[in-house]
Each structure stands twice: as structure tokens, then as C-alpha cells.
Design brief:
The complex is a heterodimer. By secondary structure, chain A is an alpha/beta fold. Helix content of chain A is 41%, strand content 20%. In chain A, β1, α2 and β2 form a beta-alpha-beta unit. The longest helix of chain A has 13 residues. A six-stranded parallel sheet of chain B has the order 2-1-3-4-6-5, sandwiched between helices. The chains are: A alpha/beta, B alpha/beta.
Chain lengths: 188, 162
């Protein structure tokens, strides 16, 4: 399974979720796979997808929020794990698609191979955390955590794919407006 | 102005999500927020997380306000330029201005001097109210950030909010 495969599985099985996707190829693959107004494509601000997702989850507790992070993104902002564990939102799912490289800058190595991410998440206060290595396991794990109270953490190890994807071509302010409109059940 | 007055005004203006990293200049505000039974204040561990969190809460339908010390502005420049400003999220930033004069501790001197220049460089309008002007400055920042879909900042010097 590559990053693109994992994104496809995730986006195609997503129903009525608010999705926040980290920058780089993750956003680009998600955009190519299924462009929904309820997806927030984070094109800059590396590391902050989980903080943004936490904000959405706290503001909209009835809506399931899925954060799609990369390994480089997660490691850049480990403090966010503690913030999520502290508030413990039941409606938050945090997925890390881990290819052990910084793909969009040319494939430089990350240091995720020496880190036990699920242990970090559990220590920070997540309710569930696990790691999977295959497409079948990833599909099953997605099904399971979607039925449970979060915050849930799911790391999926993938191999770096060769598939490219176009840049997200929506204007950022339009991404924000569409997302807010789609996600807010009763706008203020 | 007291911390309580400041918070009441923010509530009246529709702010219902508060986050940030504590600062002594804003201690009176944090005290009110921490004791508010509605739990509207979420602790952030660093200022870039605070900006991300506030953006998320806005995307979820809230008006959000971020509190920090100016030393934290360095940590969140990228969050402001490539997230909040880029996506036109109307945040109000309340920034405690350490190093506003040369008598403050040495670690605050350089950022204290640079603060207005940094905000101008990233095109964030700001107000520097005295005690009598905090309320009107908050109101002005709130209106302007909403109408222009931009981030606006209040720079709060020591003693301005009691």
C-alpha cells in the first residue's frame, strides 16, 4: 500500500465526516481522489493539521473529524498530541500515513522509523492507538475506530509511491469558506 | 480595564473560543477564562498550535481569540502567514508586549523592539491601547477582522489590563 492507496481507502469510505488533510502530497492525493467541501486542504503551516482538527472537533462535537497527518507533520508538532489527549474529544480520529520520508520535497528521510507513535498517543491520553502495515488491516482498523469513541490514533505504514498528484487549485479562502459552510450545522 | 471587563466585552462581541499560551501581562484575563464554568478556554502548548486550534474552531463556527506573549509570535509566524492570513481567517490576537521599554528583562529586548515591525511586515493591523482604550481597541479589532477577513492584534503593555 502506498500513500495514495491509503488516502483513497480513507476518502472513499468517508461518510459525513469533516476531514483535515496535512500539507504536501497528502492534500494533493486527497484532492485528486475526492474533492469534497467538507475537506480542509492544509497547503501550508506544516505540523498544524492536528491542532486545526482539534479546534473543529471541539467546536462541532456532534461531527466526526478525521485528521490525515504525515509522519513529518506529526513529528513537527508532538505537543498537539498532549492537547488532544487533554481535551479528549470523542469525535476525533487522527490518522498518520507514514512513509518515513518528506515526499513533496524530494523524499528526504524522516526519523519516524525509530518512534513508537501509538505509545506516544496513548501516553498523551488518546483512548485508542494502533499501528497497521497492510491494506486489509488498514481497512479493518478504519471500520473499527469509526464505531468507537475517540480520540483514536491510527498509524499506517506505507511504501513511498511514485504516483504524483496535482496541486490543490482552489483558492485558500474558498477552501475555508466551503469547509465552514459544510461543517457547521448551525452557523452563528 | 480589568480582566473581567475585557472578557465580558469579548463574550459580548461573540467570542466563544479562547486559546493561547499564558503571559504575565495578560494574567488577569487568563484568570477569568480559567475560572469560567463554560470551559471556553483551551490551553495550547505553543503559539503555533494556538493559531491552528483557533483556526479550526473558526472553521467549526466559533469566533476565536488567541492570547500570547510577544515572544511566542516567533513560534507562530508561519501559522499566521501560511494558515490564518492565507485562508482569510478573522482571528483577534491579544499579545502581551514584553520589552516594550528598555527596562524589561534582557530576553525580551529584541522581540520587544521588533514586534511592531514584524506585525507590519506580515500585514497584521494592530492597536496599542492604554488603560482607557482597551475596550474600544478590542471592539475595533473585532469589527475590522470580521469585515476584512484578516487577523488583527492588540498589543498589551504591562499594567494596561489589571
Amino acid at each position: 500500500m502506498t500513500e495514495a492507496d491509503a488516502i483513497r481507502m480513507l476518502m472513499e469510505s468517508s461518510v459525513d465526516e469533516a476531514v483535515v488533510v496535512a500539507n504536501g502530497y497528502l492534500s494533493r492525493h486527497a484532492f485528486q481522489c475526492r474533492d469534497l467541501p467538507s475537506t480542509f486542504y492544509m497547503i501550508g503551516s506544516m505540523g498544524l493539521a492536528s491542532s486545526i482538527g482539534l479546534g473543529v472537533a471541539l467546536a462541532q462535537p456532534e461531527r466526526r473529524v478525521v485528521v490525515v497527518d504525515g509522519d513529518g507533520n506529526l513529528l513537527m508538532s508532538l505537543g498537539a498530541l498532549a492537547m488532544i489527549g487533554n481535551r479528549c474529544p470523542a469525535n476525533l480520529i487522527h490518522i498518520v500515513i507514514d512513509n518515513e520520508v518528506y515526499a513533496s520535497t524530494g523524499g528526504q528521510h524522516s526519523i519516524s522509523g525509530t518512534v513508537s507513535m501509538p505509545e506516544l498517543a496513548l501516553a498523551a491520553g488518546y483512548r485508542t492507538a494502533l499501528s497497521v502495515w497492510s491494506e486489509t488491516e488498514f481497512g479493518n482498523a478504519l471500520n473499527n475506530i469509526r464505531k468507537k469513541d475517540g480520540p483514536s490514533f491510527l498509524q499506517t505504514k506505507v511504501r513511498r509511491g511514485t504516483e504524483t498528484a496535482p496541486r490543490v487549485h482552489h483558492e485558500p479562502d474558498r477552501i475555508a469558506r466551503l469547509f465552514r459552510h459544510a461543517v457547521v450545522r448551525q452557523p452563528r | 480595564l480589568t480582566g473581567n471587563d475585557f472578557c465580558q466585552l469579548a463574550f459580548d462581541l461573540g467570542y466563544s473560543f479562547f486559546t493561547g499560551v499564558p503571559d504575565s501581562t495578560l494574567a488577569a484575563v487568563f484568570r477569568i477564562l480559567e475560572n469560567d464554568p463554560r470551559n471556553l478556554y483551551v490551553v495550547s502548548v505553543r503559539e503555533d498550535n494556538a493559531v491552528g486550534l483557533a483556526v479550526g474552531a473558526y472553521l467549526g463556527g466559533k469566533r476565536s481569540l488567541v492570547l500570547m506573549q510577544n515572544s511566542g509570535l516567533g513560534y507562530c509566524l508561519t501559522a499566521l502567514t501560511s494558515l490564518a492570513c492565507l485562508y482569510r481567517i478573522p482571528l483577534v490576537l491579544v499579545i502581551g508586549w514584553r520589552g516594550a521599554d528598555a527596562t524589561d528583562a534582557p530576553e525580551h529586548r529584541l522581540m520587544g523592539l521588533a514586534l511592531p515591525k514584524l506585525l507590519r511586515a506580515i500585514e497584521i493591523p494592530f492597536w496599542v491601547p492604554n488603560q482607557d482604550e482597551v475596550g474600544s481597541a478590542l471592539r475595533a479589532a473585532s469589527v475590522r477582522s470580521a469585515s476584512e477577513e484578516i487577523c488583527c492584534a492588540l498589543l498589551i503593555r504591562d499594567g494596561v489590563i489589571q
